[in-house]
Amino acid sequence: MEIEIKIPSVGESVKEAILAQWYKKDGDRVRKDEAILVIETDKVTLEIVAEADGILKIKVFEGETVAVGALVGVIETSAAASQAIETKAAPSPPASEAPKQKPPEPAVSDKAAVSHERQMLPPSVRRLAAEKNIDISKIAGTGPGGRITKSDVLLYLDSGIGRQVSVVTVSESRKTDEESVTRKPMTPIRKRIAARLLDSKQNTAMLTTFNEIDMSRAMEIRTQYKDIFQKKYALSLGFMSFFVKAVVEALKSFPELNAFIEDGDILYHNYYHIGVAIGAERGLVVPVIRHADKLGFAGIEQAILDYVKKINENRLELSDLEGGTFTISNGGVYGSLLSTPILNMPQSGILGMHKIEKRPVVIAEQIVIRPMMYVAMSYDHRIVDGREAVTFLKRIKECVENPERMLIEI
Hints:
It contains eleven helices and 18 strands. The protein is an alpha+beta fold.
């Protein structure tokens, strides 16, 4: 019996995908629910798991573009069953007739286990492990079925245990004096990002306004309650939840920032679906926190954590990216001090967060040191006037600098 492996539908607008990588080779044994390949569309990356135990037969190779519903391989379950029966049925020779055998070699079996474990790893994990020269067998996985995710590898590196110094000799670093280039085709996600950003620049009257936020009070509250928060919700209290709540409060006062232009009309949204930009290995994605106005700090942090896990495990769905009415992008996690975010069409506004840096500021005629963050808000000038945009950003500043205001809605 053969089980067909087909490219699944990930949304009505997606008609084809690239078969990015097979985790197994042709003829390899696979197990039910084991990830066997990863596909990439212009919006999401998705892993496909085996539907049964058996032997894999590959029909479409890596790098090829295939239509949704296309057959890319089969799993021969009959071969797996017959081999299992033969293994069970093989009688053991009598003790007197049993041939002398060498004792088992643990090192060889260990290597086989590690090899099998590596085959089950997502490509992002394998690539990072190879770059950092990490022994995967020493990392505990937190993904489904104990699988190792990229986050597990990063935590292992941060712990200091996995840090190793790689030695490169001078002769190795000078293997060639010739200039060389590497040409790689753009991935569907990168093509999609490029097209959308160019479209946004060409088809909106985009303008950006800037401000700075004193993060002192938000940091005090975070420090004061982070242990209690962690104990109660098993979540870390981050600054993104402060900004999501502040954005929602500001949007309630300035509905144009939560609206789209559609066929000559202004489409106002009476709900708040906040997109949070997250940098993934294959490109930037913006999953949407739906009805953010109805969520508390814990609900927002949980939603972000869930999305990060789905991205690391290639489980992000197209529905996770649709329906956003406003976007927040945090370049500060990468060290950005100031930048101009580009609108995520058809949205009318996007907030850019940046790194927190201690700077001298004047407060009550005194020069003091404060943890400051520059923020930037890009908006579509066709629907939002400068006064509203500046006041909107000031409202966010007021809410983050005095988080208590958000609780009593003043």
